[in-house]
Amino acid sequence: MSSPANAEAQVSELELLFSMFPNEILVDDQLALADLRDYIQGKMQSSPTSRLQYTIHLHLEALNVVCTLSCAFPPNYPAVLPEISIRSEALYRSQQMQINTDLYEYLRRSCCGEICVLNAIEWIKDHAVTYMIKESLAVDKRQPANRTKNVICTRLWIYSHHIYNKEKRKNILEWAKELSLTGFSMPGKPGVVCVEGAHSTCEEYWARIKRLTWKRILIRHREDTTMDITNKEMTSVIQMFQKFTDFEEKIFTVHGNRSNHMDFGQLYQFLNERDCGDIFQMYFGVEGKAS
Length: 291
What we know:
By secondary structure, the protein is of the alpha+beta class. It has helices at residues 4-20, 30-40, 93-110, 117-139, 166-178, 199-211, 234-241, 264-273, 279-284, and strands at 25-27, 53-60, 65-72, 83-87, 150-160, 182-186, 191-198, 217-228, 247-249, 254-255, 261-262.
């Protein structure tokens, strides 16, 4: 369980990182951050159930490559270590596993009980290039058929205060199909959008969506999975990751004075049928129940 002191340390660390890397940080769940701030200010009596998660894109000038640092924080961080992982297209699977193992050992030895993201960033800047050079040397000795290739598949769960506008609903559908993404959208209040596919196209979709005018929109949760595409077609690998077969707008039974609220029980049943039932509580803070 988190304490106000732990929560304050998490928020203070994030604010420090924002001041140093204003364009490189993406908070995955803005509601989790808002809950932490409310908890610190005494607006919440119990500690938040969701945890702070954010992504930092680090440019390593020595090799002119970008490393992505994914950070997830247990409620009692910094009393315990966070979950921090590194990925980069410049790293093969074996080197990616090794650098993450070595980073964890460094944090365990040096930072347990203290905020440590900045320490992790400095360690990566100092050491990541070594792993990439080793891998580059090893690649020269490999046959192309034996080369391991990875692709990152992403699933974004987007939350909006509401989705009513017909033009926005049209964009949500057409952009997903243009970018070959699968998933669904649910208009109404609140609005829900899920897209899944290749990491780059999901990011392009989000960039387009957030440029529209919204009362409130954010990524409520994201799933990034590294998939092995050695000797496989990209399309077949993405299909293995997908939980949806196409992209569609889902209209459930409506209720409310303005008939603008979808039946959450039907939404939960729809998600459960696609092995996504746990997402319901992340969105709405309550356990789902089928209608």
